[in-house]
Amino acid sequence: MGDVEDEDGEAPGQIARTIDVLGFFCPVPISEARKALLQMQSDEVLEVWSDDPEVLHDMPLLLNRTGDELISVEENAGEYRMLIRKIG
């Protein structure tokens, strides 16, 4: 587990869980992220790896429903790394 810095350079916490859904397409990445978030404690950080471009649209929709926070999105060679903070 590694430390995470948000865009302001503040450290919001350590990565508590990582899910790798590379090679899986909708709805798998969103479903797996939802399951992971349900098992996490407040302020823990979830790292999601996906190569489905739909996560850029679908993940924010999920987080709007759950109230959790999208800390960052990075893209490299068609792979997306999302950091999500569990709220509440």
Model description:
This protein has 88 residues and is an alpha+beta fold. The protein has two helices and five strands. Strand 4 (69-76) and strand 5 form a beta hairpin. The mean pLDDT is 90.
Largest sheet: 5 strands, mixed
The third-level CATH topology is Translation Initiation Factor IF3
CATH class: Alpha Beta
Q: What is the CATH architecture annotation?
A: 2-Layer Sandwich
The percentage helix is: 25-40%
Q: Specify Rg, calculated over alpha carbons.
A: 12 Å
State the separation between the terminal residues, measured CA to CA.
21 Å
Our count of helices gives 2
Oligomer: single chain
Give the strand order of the largest sheet, numbering strands 1, 2, ... along the chain: 1-2-3-5-4
Which labels suit this protein?
88 residues, alpha+beta, Translation Initiation Factor IF3, five-stranded mixed beta sheet
Short structural description:
The protein has helices spanning 28-38, 55-66; strands at residues 3-4, 13-20, 45-50, 69-76, 79-85. With 88 residues, the chain is an alpha+beta fold.
Write the layout of secondary structure elements.
Blueprint: E1 3-4, E2 13-20, H1 28-38, E3 45-50, H2 55-66, E4 69-76, E5 79-85
